[in-house]
Amino acid sequence: MKPRFLGRLGLADAVTVGNAALGFLAGAVAIVDTGLASRLILLGAIADGLDGVIARRRGGTAAGPYLDSLADVASFGMAPAILVAAVTFDTWDPQTEPGMVAMGLAIGALFVAMAVTRLGLYTAYDTDVKQTAGAPTTLAATILAASVLAGYTDPWFLLALTGLLAGLMVSTLTYPDLHTQDALVMGVVQAVAVVAPGWVGRDFAVALLVLSLAYLSLSPIYYWRDGLNWGPLRRRS
User: What SS3 class is residue 52?
Assistant: First the structure.
């Protein structure tokens, strides 16, 4: 008997499902290797962009938007929250500092809840539009993973950042889709941060963090795409 998905799902869907598997792997290894977990989250972000490219070029399926949101829960909701929790456990002992650990877990749980809420709203209302309300979950996860890879592992910093991103994911701030050339630059920087060892990978992680924070903070006001003006930056003909 053939699996039900044969003939119903396409290549883009396969990449999306692979992204979900990367999310599980990232969460599992975060307990023992936060650097590897961060790289797997960034690899999932690359896969998240790739499945969209494939769907536009080869066509998508009716299941695609639902699979995408489900995969994003694993890779960009659960995995980064577990990553932050793992850093918390490395710093604070649950036996001697249970309050600190409980706070870290609560903020991680809040991040997951807001990511799920954001993804549900996106699937229901924003799938076919060029902009979306709230910071994208992929962006939030990228910022957290890049922070860890760049060496910014102070738990107070990560928890504050996680809480901020949780709020921004369900905010009314409008985030436009990345223009193709900007998405390509981000993808290249992500890829080098994932595969490069030592100081090279760390420097690219810092660059990725700077780019991601710039998009997070500036794009609702200063961005352009496809002939639309998003503030002072205007497209040149």
Answer: helix
**Residue 34 falls within a domain, yes or no?**
yes
Residue 5 lies in a domain: no
Q: What is the DSSP letter of 61?
A: -
Q: Give the range of the structural domain holding residue 219, as residue numbers without chain letter.
A: 11-230
Q: Please compute, for residue 94, the number of CA atoms within 13 A of its CA located in the half-sphere on the CB side.
A: 7
- CB within 8 Å of 138: residues ≥ 6 apart: 45, 48, 49, 72, 76
Average pLDDT, the chain: 87
- Does residue 116 sit within a domain? yes
CATH number for the domain harbouring residue 195: 1.20.120.1760
Buried b (16+ CB within 10 A) or exposed e, 211-223: bbbebbeebbeeb
16-68 pLDDT, tens digit per residue, is 999 999 999 999 999 999 999 999 999 999 999 888 788 878 777 888 888 98
Please count the other Cβ atoms lying within 10 Å of the Cβ belonging to residue 26.
29
Rg, C-alpha atoms of the chain: 18
Domain total of the chain: 1
